[in-house]
Amino acid sequence: MGRVAIIGASMTQFGQREGEWIQDLLAEAGIECLEDAGVDADDVEHLYVSNMASGEFEGQTGVPNALAHDLDAMPAYTQRIDQTSSSGGAGIYAAWQSVASGASDMTMLVGGEKMTHKTTGEATDVIASLTHPAEYKHGVTLPSFAGLTARHYLERFDAPRESLGKVAVKNHKNGVDNPHAQFQTEVDLETVLESPIVADPLRLYDFCPITDGSAALMLCPESIAKEYADEYAVITGIDGATDTHVVHEREDPTVMGGVVESGKGAYEMSGYGPDDIDVAELHDMFTILEFLQMEGLGFAEQGEAWKRVEEGHTERDGELPINTSGGLKSKGHPLGASGVAQGVEIYEQLVGEAGPRQVDADVGLCCNVGGFGNCVITTIMEAAQ
Amino acid sequence: MGRVAIIGASMTQFGQREGEWIQDLLAEAGIECLEDAGVDADDVEHLYVSNMASGEFEGQTGVPNALAHDLDAMPAYTQRIDQTSSSGGAGIYAAWQSVASGASDMTMLVGGEKMTHKTTGEATDVIASLTHPAEYKHGVTLPSFAGLTARHYLERFDAPRESLGKVAVKNHKNGVDNPHAQFQTEVDLETVLESPIVADPLRLYDFCPITDGSAALMLCPESIAKEYADEYAVITGIDGATDTHVVHEREDPTVMGGVVESGKGAYEMSGYGPDDIDVAELHDMFTILEFLQMEGLGFAEQGEAWKRVEEGHTERDGELPINTSGGLKSKGHPLGASGVAQGVEIYEQLVGEAGPRQVDADVGLCCNVGGFGNCVITTIMEAAQ
User: Fold this and answer.
1) Which of A223, A357, A358, B9 is packed most tightly, with the most Cβ within 10 A?
2) CB of B6 within 8 Å of any CB in chain A?
3) Residue A139's pLDDT is what?
4) What pLDDT is recorded for position A385?
5) Under a CB-based contact definition with an 8 Å cutoff, are residues A285 and A207 in contact?
């Protein structure tokens, strides 16, 4: 079976996009991705949309069909992919499958979400609807899971509260150089540690914001990639895995089974291991998640990710730069777009288009976490030319 | 590339399922499908859920993760597939891609929707949210498109109003022998023609009902199908295609471009043509749609499908039995389940498990229509042993 290449990428401005709706955001990223890849809309065979909740947020459904219309891509086949907060990663997997199966020779994936017209409470409730009803009825939200897990992690592994704050500081620092990031401002550790408590011990700056935005990737068989791009990326490993949907049933709350299993599958498929990864985008919806993914993916032993962060290991000039894009923390987290935007960052790093964020990388990984690790997709890409 | 087999199928009772919710319905179909296929939950690698709007209908999202949990199928990868009213057909396509790409050697697809707890107005509005905003804002609903199109068809092709009614009569007659159908009662032509007007000239009995229900299929590479089943079906052709999302932009309202294009793709892939099809499930959300699909798929010339129906060509003992299951009309139309249930019927016909509905068939087709033909998926299967 031939390998699947990524030959183009795009990303809209993330942030508060007043007066623009999901259909506008998807079209903006879609048009830019077509241009970036040098592909005519007519040549797109499958057009996939990663989106969690356009119906709940906007009362509009059928957005993939609207996008095909707006891009004049008919009769391209369309489909919406939802895997909650990992809809973007699920979209990469679906787009990969569409090309690898031979169903499509040109698949564009566009992820997007429009959220900021809702209050924080309303948006949090839409997101919380992804939890198991047995937990939802107790008023559980994802931030509350994060707070409980962070407290457990800090106590059990004797990690300082500051180490979590340093994740936020690092990701904000990276976001300064990302012109599409929602926040392009540094924050210092003191600001993080003194921000309002949301779910003790986590504070406002341990959380990603609510965001509008869209991102896109163009996938095709590697055999024709050269016709479109001198430099491109190849998806060498990809896998997804679930963990218990009832979060409190997990044996060890610091081990995200979906991260471990999807990582294992992606490593096995690619032939690479954790030491081969040069750059990674992790799903830092909450600072604590960056630790859990680093450990689940083998970038640190259990209970030791915080030390790697303290040592500067994950800074842009460190051994393994993590979230060079700014991460969800400073780039923002438009649900369906986030996993796609992770792919955009890794793609840009591999083809040398990351501008001031550029690091030296031949192999990159992204990990997109649905819910509180309820389903996770891990993708490994390498540079090609 | 190896072929993809269907080795098991299931379907819950369709109808009004009081006190049961989407998660219950999906789990019921999922458990039955595992049993029917003789597959352990542990062996399911990908678990796909076709569902349009659990968030809008029930305020619950993340249902694929809930299903993995309920079936104890972790760490199976899960994903929700939404393509509005053709989510089920899109699910078959996605499940096919997951196996054909080598990503999964055992994919279970479960489609479902829980709708009847909403009023007809509420459910119709959720469905109408799939239309283009430019049309939605004028208060357009899918039944209104159907009424306009039916009027145009009858006048232009000089077709009698009765011919549409006969589609309803036929499908209700078939539904009598489907123990899972919502309506297992015959209706006579007079009843159809005298039922209340919904969208002139279409009346109540020209429309499918609002339904709760779930259906499932088990897919694997044909190379291992024999380990699970003596008789199985093989997907030999499958394709999907969009038409203009703004319905009034179509040049000819009686030609559904998505049906034509997806049919063309599926025929080409399978090597079969319209004359090779022995049994078909068409998306009769409205009686007029059965005519348009028959014509788009080459079962009749444009403007002549009504004659085939008048001649009894599409009866169970006719040349090409259509909607032996009872169709959406009498079986019911739980959005995300309907396309999967079409696949279940064709599978059962091909492996000889259709009981009193059994017809003689080696090759079958199903056509699942999203919106008013905004995106359509056509699947062709053949019997194997």
Assistant:
1) B9
2) no
3) 85
4) 84
5) yes
Tell me if A100 and B98 make a contact (CB, 8 A cut-off). no
Give residue-wise pLDDT tens across range B238-294.
999 999 999 999 999 999 999 999 999 999 999 999 999 999 999 999 999 999 999
Which pLDDT score, from 0 to 100, does residue B1 have?
66
Identify the segments of chain A with pLDDT beneath 70: 1
The reply to whether B74 touches chain A by the CB within 8 Å rule is yes
Q: How many Å separate Cα A240 from the centre of its chain? A: 13
Tokens 């999907």 belong to B240
What ipTM was estimated for this complex? 0.97
Residues of chain A with pLDDT > 90: what percent? 96
Identify which of A31, A22, A27 has the alpha carbon closest to the alpha carbon of residue A53. A22
Q: Tell me the nearest-neighbour CA distance from B20 into chain A, angstroms.
A: 13
Contact B61 A262 (CB under 8 A): no
Bond into B75 cis (ω within 30): yes
B-contacting residues of A 139-178, CB under 8 Å? Answer: none
Name the one residue in this structure whose structure tokens are 């087709």. B365
* Sequence ranges of chain B with CATH classification 3.40.47.10: 4-118+211-233, 141-208+236-383
Give the chain A residue nearest B81 (alpha carbons). A81
For residue A328, which of A242, A238, A191, A210 has the smallest C-alpha distance?
A210
SS3 B168: helix
Distance of residue A363 Cα from the nearest chain B Cα, in angstroms: 21
Residues in chain A with CB shorter than 8 Å from the CB of B100 are: 101-103
Assign a CATH topology to domain A4-118+211-233: Peroxisomal Thiolase; Chain A, domain 1 (3.40.47)
Give the pLDDT confidence score for residue A39 in this predicted structure. Answer: 98
Name which of A60, A78, A84 is nearest B61 (Cβ-Cβ).
A84
Domain B141-208+236-383 classification at class level: alpha beta
Residues of chain B neighbouring A257 (CB-CB closer than 8 A): 74-75
Contact status of A53 with chain B (Cβ, < 8 Å): yes
Chain B interface includes A102 (CB < 8 A): yes
Residue of B22, B26, B78 best to disrupt the A interface, most CBs of A under 10 A: B78
What's the pTM value of the predicted model, to 2 decimals? 0.98
Please state, in angstroms and rounded to a whole number, the distance separating the CA atoms of residues B104 and B123. Answer: 35
B63-86: average pLDDT: 98
Tens digits of residue pLDDT in A146-199: 999 999 999 999 999 999 999 999 999 999 999 999 999 999 999 999 999 999
